[in-house]
Every structure is written in C-alpha cells, then in structure tokens.
Design goal:
The protein has one helix at about 60-70; strands spanning about 5-10, 15-25, 25-35, 40-50, 50-55. It has a 5-stranded antiparallel beta sheet, with helices on one face. The chain starts with 6 loop residues before the first strand and ends with a helix. The chain has 1 helix and 5 strands. β4 and β5 (about 50-55) form a beta hairpin. The protein is globular. The chain is an alpha+beta fold.
Length: about 80
C-alpha cells in the first residue's frame, strides 16, 4: 500500500516532506528535507486570516513539548 507524500517549501527555498502532524498546546509539523534526510525541522501551524501557515517555534518550551509529543507518538 503506497501513500502519497505531502511536500512544502520552507523559507530556505528547500522542499521538505511532512513526516507527521501532532497536536498539543500547538499543532506541530515534523518535516524532513527531501535532499538531506538528516535535515529535520519542526514548525507549528498557526492560523492567520483563516489560512494555515507554518511558523517557527518561539521558545525552548515549545520545542520540548514538540519533542515529547513526537516521542510519545513514535512508531
């Protein structure tokens, strides 16, 4: 069974595949660079004018929460 992958282009003009989306205090998006799988990033989804936008994490607390969510939901 194959699954179609979703891609996004981030501010560095690189394409990233969406690995997982998890929700805690924020909705976090876990991404991997298509050209370099060791380049992993986390963004949060925010809503501006009814449009979902990927934004960077603002604090170490957000990063820690995102990592805890990822660990709890690891396959």
């Amino acid at each position: 069974m194959s699954k179609e992958l979703e891609y996004v282009e981030l501010e560095d003009k690189e394409n990233y595949v969406i690995l997982k989306i998890l929700e805690g205090t924020n909705k976090y998006v876990y991404l991997a660079n298509i050209k370099d799988a060791s380049d992993l990033v986390i963004r949060k989804l925010i809503v501006i004018d009814e449009q979902e936008i990927l934004a960077g994490l603002d604090t170490d607390q957000e990063f820690n929460e995102a990592m805890e969510l990822f660990k709890k939901n690891a396959i």
